Amino acid sequence: VFTLVIIIIFNFAFDTGTIEMQRIAPGMMWVAFTFAGMLGVNRSFMPEKEQGSFEGLLLAPMDRGAIYLGKLLGNLTLIGMVELLSLPLFALFLNIPIVKYLPGLLVVFALGTIGFASIGTLFAAMAVHSRMREVMLPILLFPLASPILIAAVETTRIVFSDGGWDELSSWINLLVTFMVVFLAASLLLFDYILEE
C-alpha cells in the first residue's frame, strides 16, 4: 500500500507527457523500495522483543550468524515481493515498458536489495532495544546504505536507457562490491551487536 501511494504521488507530480519517465523512474522506484523496505526491516526483531523471547533466542545453542541469515532472508522475501508486485504498477502509472527491461532489472534489484537488507537487518538488531527505534533505524541506515542505493539508481537508469555492457559493468561491479562488503561486515558484527 505504501509503495502504491508513492507511485500515485509521483504520477501526479510529474507529467508523463513532458518528462522522459525512464530518466526519473529509477529514482522513484528506489525511493519506494527503500521506504517500504525500511518499514519491513524495522519490524525484523519486533516479534521476539514483544513476546519476550529475544533473550531465549540468544541462548539457543546455535550460531548467531544463522539468526542473522534467517532474519535477512525474511527481509529479502518481503522487499522482493514489494518490488515484484510494484513493477506492474510502475508500468501502468508511469508508462514504462517494464517487460522489455525485466532481465536487467531483476539483476539490479537482487544486488541492491541484498545490500540494503543486509545492512538494514544488522541495524534493526541494534535498534530493537531502543525506545526510539523508529527514528534510530533510519538515522543509522540511510547514511550507510546511500552508496548502494545511488549505485542501484544509476544502474537502473542505464538499464532503462539501453546502455551497453561497458557503461553497465562498472556500476554492476560497484553494486556487487557493496553487497559483499555489507553482507560480510554484517555477519561479522552481528554477534557483537547482540551482546550489547
Automatic annotation (TrEMBL):
Q: Which GO terms describe its molecular function?
A: heme transmembrane transporter activity
Its function? Required for the export of heme to the periplasm for the biogenesis of c-type cytochromes.
What organism does the UniProt record list as the source? marine metagenome
Entry annotated with the keyword Transmembrane helix: yes
The entry's localization annotation reads: Cell inner membrane
One GO CC term on file: plasma membrane
Where would you find the membrane-spanning parts of this chain?
24-41, 72-94, 106-128, 140-160, 172-194
State the InterPro entries in the record. Answer: Cyt_c_biogenesis_CcmB (IPR003544), Cyt_c_CcmB_bac (IPR026031)
Q: What is this protein called?
A: Heme exporter protein B
Q: Where is the signal peptide?
A: none
Q: Which Pfam families did the record assign?
A: CcmB
For this UniProt record, give its keywords in alphabetical order, as a comma-separated list: Cell inner membrane, Cell membrane, Cytochrome c-type biogenesis, Membrane, Transmembrane, Transmembrane helix, Transport
Q: What's its membrane topology?
A: Multi-pass membrane protein
Please list the GO biological process terms of this entry. Answer: cytochrome c biosynthetic process; cytochrome complex assembly
Q: Belongs to which family? A: Belongs to the CcmB/CycW/HelB family.
Q: Note whether Transport occurs among the keywords.
A: yes
